[in-house]
Amino acid sequence: MNSSDSRQLTTPAPSPHDYVGTPALATPAQVIVDVLGAPEPQLCDPAEPMIFADDLAAVRGDGVFETLMLRNGEVHNLQRHATRFVTSAAMLDLGEPDLDRWLAATELAAEAFGASVGAPEAALRWVYSRGRESTGQATGWVTVAPIAADVLTARQSGVKVMTAERGFRIDLSERSPWALIGAKTLSYAANMAALRYAKAHGLQDVIFVSDEGHVLEGPTSSVVVLRDNTLVTPPIEAGVLPGTTQAALFRVAEEQGWETAYEVLSVQDLIESDGVWLVSSVRVQARVTELDGHEMPRAECADEIEQMMWEAVAH
Amino acid sequence: MNSSDSRQLTTPAPSPHDYVGTPALATPAQVIVDVLGAPEPQLCDPAEPMIFADDLAAVRGDGVFETLMLRNGEVHNLQRHATRFVTSAAMLDLGEPDLDRWLAATELAAEAFGASVGAPEAALRWVYSRGRESTGQATGWVTVAPIAADVLTARQSGVKVMTAERGFRIDLSERSPWALIGAKTLSYAANMAALRYAKAHGLQDVIFVSDEGHVLEGPTSSVVVLRDNTLVTPPIEAGVLPGTTQAALFRVAEEQGWETAYEVLSVQDLIESDGVWLVSSVRVQARVTELDGHEMPRAECADEIEQMMWEAVAH
After folding, report:
1. The pLDDT value given to residue A169
2. B72: distance to nearest CA of chain A, Å?
3. Scanning every residue of chain A, which has its alpha carbon at the shortest distance from the alpha carbon of B139?
4. Which CATH number fits domain B3-147: 3.20.20.150, 1.10.357.140, 3.40.30.10, 3.30.470.10?
5. CA dist., res. B29 & res. B119, Å (int)
6. Is the N or C terminus of chain B more exposed, i.e. has fewer CB atoms within 10 Å?
């Protein structure tokens, strides 16, 4: 309540990320496209605000999103993201997204990012909100920003991980559609809190586990386990998001003669496996090097597995 | 993906609310104060956007809020809201809010609302976000908007309610601080979905119940039960938000010779009680007239109970 408290909130905090391929920036290297606010998607000045104070995305986390990898000007795994985006929107009773419009916005954003920032890799995000509380008008926007340096580190060196109880019942999604399990909503505060908790304990990531001890997913990733010659991931019915990168990986792996399976997994299954990876669109893959304090040695075939992960997101 | 889909998203939807005391408005009757973006809180044009596209409130629901009642120019139950706001912020590892600053912003917003919109009752909201992803700069704002007509209806006629499994374990908050149980975060998508589900089934509100069958809270309210001469509410340890209106009510009730208690309650306890109310800051009270299809007759002393609820929020 004194003036030093006041300064605490008004002095700009240090940037949380060092961006790859760009210097530290006072004005962030971003591209913003407004998708729904005009007859056609249009570029916005990233130095200006674009969301109203009563937008339900900002005051209720009431909307859905996707994060896509933009690499050398190309968006990857687009169809799977689009499918999940439409499914998430339906689960929240949002109007069906006009995909042509979102794809036009994506193209516009990717071109503008190439022309202005030009980093080789970026995270391209679709955000679709229920819109303004006062008007009922839906809002949607696309952002592109360079990827954070810790993403590169995780790809190269892997991540130390803790398991964390998520606290949802495994059968909640069937009985309780309002829990929105399987929808990629903007209400990610608990996911972000779990990541902060891990980082505060010297770790880099989290794997959520159900009440029953079943492995679920990371806060922003799917869990893929190597067991002999089989890649295994928890089934959707466990209460996880359908993973776009995991799905693309499984297709590539099957083409290359690996087995794939959707199976209920315990934490012990992970510890005894031949390898565990967290896979997601922008980071692509981060091998788990330590799980709840157990060292997870790198399997001989890890290079081959990770190569498949990169192939999976290359188109 | 044809042009009619496109129009679906760009044509303004009808306003979701008729506001009390103001005509239907194309530009909403709002007041917006930016709390953290300048050396002092300042009024913003409500017709202009004020939040950046990468604000973590809007893309992750990563922040906290309070909704206060503004009645005839006065904000009610301020200290309890301020206390909970500080607690919520701490649970999310946000910087401690400078309350002097938030109170100055609140005063500015209330005065501007009185001068411009002038409705007798309004909802005044504090939103405190982790801020912009690209800069790490925290953001915060205060909005004031007239209350919706269905709030008046619920006060006068009560609400038909369904119970809904929330799916959290009752002891999750102790073992899993990342679940943020007890923090009033912006990640309210599931709460909003539960309310939509109820409304789609001809009801007006929801009471969440734990796995164990313990009564928790409404999506935007506390549950207060009348049993003989005692007012009962579930304990915080059940995994509910500390209710500001409930706390104020209990103080008034104790002064007037009623008993109060924090007790684990089952749905059957509610059905067999002498009355159930959903209490919250802006709606104040809505008596449950039907619970999971069971009619809940109005007790003789209901007028007295509701009178105490109004007294509780009068200062």
Report:
1. 65
2. 21
3. A9
4. 3.30.470.10
5. 9
6. C
